[in-house]
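Task card 7
Instruction: Convert sequence to structure tokens.
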Amino acid sequence: MDVQVFVDLQDRLDQESTLREDIKGAITELNKTCRLASAKLAKAHSVPKSQTKEVTDTIKPQFETIRQNINALSSLIQPVTFYKYHDMWSNAIQSACSLVVFAVYLDDARLATPSDIQAYLSCRVNTDNADVTEFIITLEEYLNAIVSLFSELSRLAVNSVIVGDIQRPQEISTFASELYAGFQLLNLKNDNLRRRFDSIKYDIKKIEEVQYDLRVRGLIS
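Output:
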């Protein structure tokens, strides 16, 4: 019996193992940068709206590094094997998208579009579910990032009052309600995404409770 077939198979297994280790290394670097950016962006919860631009400006170097991290990851992946390894980095890419979504809201009080994601991360959101011909951000990753924004908004509503910015919760509530209404138009097939969407109502409730308390105290009309 020719054992060369097993030698060749072992070579392929070794190549597969090496590739997975390289992917893990790239993901580790991406996660590290995202954690640093998230820590800096969290400072937006402790300042009034007038100072949030200063906070978002501080993470611009991290977005540049995130772009480099994603580029390093994408260089390891062939389009034909994209979905084979996709689960390895999906959470890390989602974290990067969440940072963009929150930063865009802080800067412009609007929802980050797929074009914003591409501008910040130099990676296209596959909104049309086209065949993969390059490293992409999936539509589910983009939508999960939007869901994550609701928890940030609920925290921001509470913390805005703490720093004396009592008009801001009303702005946050209006935006969150409109965003929630938009989400309800989607027929979500992804189980994880649907479960996360179901939790949004608790964030909406927290924002509404902040407004109610302010009205009861006569601080807003």
